[in-house]
Every structure is written in structure tokens, then in C-alpha cells.
């Protein structure tokens, strides 16, 4: 009976101890390299520790990208100066400050520690951010990347997923393929007779019905009873050549359109002799006087808004003279903030569910 009472008392003490608020001491914070030793720093450190314990089981699903080297001793990012590299040890880099401190140590305490051999450290200059950061790549336009819903439909229709590293690699490569080949079919074509997937250049398509395709096997068997004429699908080589030519022509047209838009917005006088400049200014006047607007179905207004949106996505000038450029950039910024907020909320909800599952399994 006495032992039972002692056991119950010990259990109450343990429960009371677990309910007490845990605080990291200033000595522990200082040892961890924190400069702020206030109570908020203790809470932040505990929060980061709890977050690390929560996401540790999910680390296999993360894609880590190291943009800068970090010192193996002080863990600071090395963005300028030199870093000291050991060619014998993999992923060992230290900064100048840690290298000077290591040179003052005894030979047996230098890198690698607890080893009789001493490895030589070699200096490597750290290349900073280049002065010229202009993007010289061609402008690639695709309808699947104009809105979030279009990109989501592309991923859902082709089963592109990013929940594992292997699927993320495949999905990223396929998304890049659609970006560089805008005229290629976005979705897998299936045979209307046998319902099998049709490989590139191995099928027949109706010239009138947009959704009627048959494979070579069904076409050769003669089981197709379609009233319209069927034409053979282009081969992969022909399609690649068409895609390259169409992409180059589209890029050139987009560049001319954007340059002409800036030119017409800069030279407001009516003395410009370029006929295309006068046409763009005519579109400006039409947009100011039109009562139908793009929402009502006006073709000219839709064309004008498309050009303005393309310009606003690529424009970096804060004092741009193109009409509605500032408003469109502000609108795009708000859309990006809303998208980031929704993504953050989805990630937090996923982490909360994972943490609840881990806690339930324990």
C-alpha cells in the first residue's frame, strides 16, 4: 500500500513537471550562437526546435537547393571573400575567420579532429553576384502558365504530381517540354475505338471532328466507321521542326509587339511616320472610347489587354509610359501575394496533419 502511494505521488510530480513552462537558458542560447538573449529568443528557439522535430520525418520529400556555401564550423553563409576547401573530405568548407582560428590550434586539434593525419586546406575565391543580371533568354509564352487554374488542369490531365522526388523530376521535365513546345498536344491522345494511348506519329485524326483519333492498328483492321476523312498524325521529327519554327516566329512577333507598344507610348506626337505606330495609337484611342470593353467581347480591346499584360509581366521600369502598366503590375503583385498566402496555408495545414499523424502513431 505504501509503495502504491509513493508511485502515485511520483506520477503526480512527473505530470506537474511536464506542465511547467520550458525556457532555454541564456547560456544555452549563447552557446548556440544567438546574439539576442531575451525571452522571445528562447521562445523562437523552442519553436524552431519543435518545427524541426515535426518536419524531420518528411525530409525525404523535400528538394533542397544550396545557393551559397556555408561554413562547416560557424554555419554562416559565405557570400564574399574566400572559402577554404579540403580536397580529401567531402563537403568541408570554412570561412576566413574560422581558418585563422584553426591555424592557431595545435596540429592534433586541426582538421580533421581526432586524427593523426593533417589535411591541407586550399583557398577558393567566392564569386559574388554579377553586375549584369539581365535575362537574355527568349520570352516563352504558353497558355498553360497564364493562370493557376490552367496549370492545375495541365497537371491533373496528365497526372503530374510533386509529392515525391521521383515524380517531381518527371513532372518538371514534362512541364518544361510543354513550355518549349507550345504547339505539341498537351494531353495524351487515346484511340476512340480501342481506348489505347496513341504514340506520336502512330495515329489518324479527323480533319473535321476535333476529338476523333484512332490508332494505326484499328485503322489497318478497317474497323473504323467514321464519315469524315482521316489524316495521319505528324511524326516526332516533323512535329519538333514545326515546334521550333513556330516558337521562333512567335518569339519574334512578341518582341516586335512589345517594342512597338513601348515606342507608341513614348512618342505621343502624331508626327511618327511608322504605320504600325499609328495602329497602336488607334488601339489606345479605341480602348478609351469603347463601351463594349474586353469583358463584353470586343476583339480589339482583348488584343490590347493581352499586349498590356505581356508588357507588364516583363517591365521593370517604375516610370513606364505604357498605359495601365503600373496598375497591371500592382494587380499581378496582389495575385502573387494571394497565391503565396494560399500556398502557405495549404503547407501549414499539411504539416499540421502530418504532426497529428506522427503524434497519434507515438
From TrEMBL:
Main localization, broad class: nucleus
Location in or out of the cell: Nucleus
Transcription is among the record's keywords: yes
Claim: Plastid is one of the keywords in the record: no
Keywords: Activator, Acyltransferase, Chromatin regulator, Metal-binding, Nucleus, Repeat, Transcription, Transcription regulation, Transferase, Zinc, Zinc-finger
The protein's Enzyme Commission number: 2.3.1.48
GO molecular function, a single term: histone acetyltransferase activity
BP-aspect Gene Ontology terms: regulation of DNA-templated transcription
Catalytic activity entry: L-lysyl-[protein] + acetyl-CoA = N(6)-acetyl-L-lysyl-[protein] + CoA + H(+)
Domain of life: Eukaryota
PROSITE patterns found in the cross-reference section: CBP_P300_HAT, ZF_TAZ, ZF_ZZ_1, ZF_ZZ_2
A Pfam family matched in the record: zf-TAZ
Span of domain ZZ-type: 66-129, 186-238
UniProt domain CBP/p300-type HAT: residue ranges: 1-184
Enzyme class: transferase
Stretches assigned to the TAZ-type domain: 244-328
Any one Gene Ontology cellular component term annotated for this protein: nucleus
Chain's role: Acetyltransferase enzyme. Acetylates histones, giving a specific tag for transcriptional activation.
Protein name: histone acetyltransferase
Amino acid at each position: 500500500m505504501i509503495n502504491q502511494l509513493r508511485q502515485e505521488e511520483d506520477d503526480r510530480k512527473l505530470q506537474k513537471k511536464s506542465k511547467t513552462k520550458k525556457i532555454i537558458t541564456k547560456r544555452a542560447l549563447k552557446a548556440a550562437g544567438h546574439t539576442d538573449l531575451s525571452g522571445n529568443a528562447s521562445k523562437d528557439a523552442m519553436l524552431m526546435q519543435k518545427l524541426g522535430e515535426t518536419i524531420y520525418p518528411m525530409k525525404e520529400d523535400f528538394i533542397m537547393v544550396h545557393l551559397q556555401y556555408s561554413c562547416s564550423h560557424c554555419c554562416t553563409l559565405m557570400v564574399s571573400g574566400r572559402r577554404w576547401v579540403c580536397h580529401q573530405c567531402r563537403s568541408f568548407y570554412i570561412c576566413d575567420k574560422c581558418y585563422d582560428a584553426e591555424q592557431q590550434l595545435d596540429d592534433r586539434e586541426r582538421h580533421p579532429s581526432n586524427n593523426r593525419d593533417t589535411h591541407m586546406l586550399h583557398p577558393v575565391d567566392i564569386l559574388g553576384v554579377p553586375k549584369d543580371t539581365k535575362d537574355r533568354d527568349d520570352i516563352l509564352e504558353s497558355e498553360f502558365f497564364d493562370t493557376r487554374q490552367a496549370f492545375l488542369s495541365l497537371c491533373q490531365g496528365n497526372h503530374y504530381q510533386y509529392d515525391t522526388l521521383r515524380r517531381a523530376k518527371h513532372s518538371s521535365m514534362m512541364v518544361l517540354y510543354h513550355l518549349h513546345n507550345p504547339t505539341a498536344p498537351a494531353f495524351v491522345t487515346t484511340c476512340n475505338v480501342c481506348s489505347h494511348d496513341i504514340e506520336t506519329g502512330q495515329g489518324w485524326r479527323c480533319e473535321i471532328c476535333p476529338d476523333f483519333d484512332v490508332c494505326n492498328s484499328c485503322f489497318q483492321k478497317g474497323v473504323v466507321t467514321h464519315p469524315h476523312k482521316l489524316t495521319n498524325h505528324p511524326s516526332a521529327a516533323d512535329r519538333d521542326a514545326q515546334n521550333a519554327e513556330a516558337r521562333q516566329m512567335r518569339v519574334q512577333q512578341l518582341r516586335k509587339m512589345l517594342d512597338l507598344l513601348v515606342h507608341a507610348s513614348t512618342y505621343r506626337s502624331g508626327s511618327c511616320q511608322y504605320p504600325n505606330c499609328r495602329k497602336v495609337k488607334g488601339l489606345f484611342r479605341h480602348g478609351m472610347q469603347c463601351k463594349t470593353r474586353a469583358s463584353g467581347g470586343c476583339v480589339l480591346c482583348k488584343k490590347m489587354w493581352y499586349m498590356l499584360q505581356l508588357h507588364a509581366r516583363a517591365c521593370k521600369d517604375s516610370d513606364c509610359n505604357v498605359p495601365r502598366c503600373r496598375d497591371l503590375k500592382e494587380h499581378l503583385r496582389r495575385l502573387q501575394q494571394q497565391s503565396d498566402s494560399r500556398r502557405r496555408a495549404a503547407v501549414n495545414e499539411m504539416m499540421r496533419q502530418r504532426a497529428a499523424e506522427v503524434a497519434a502513431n507515438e
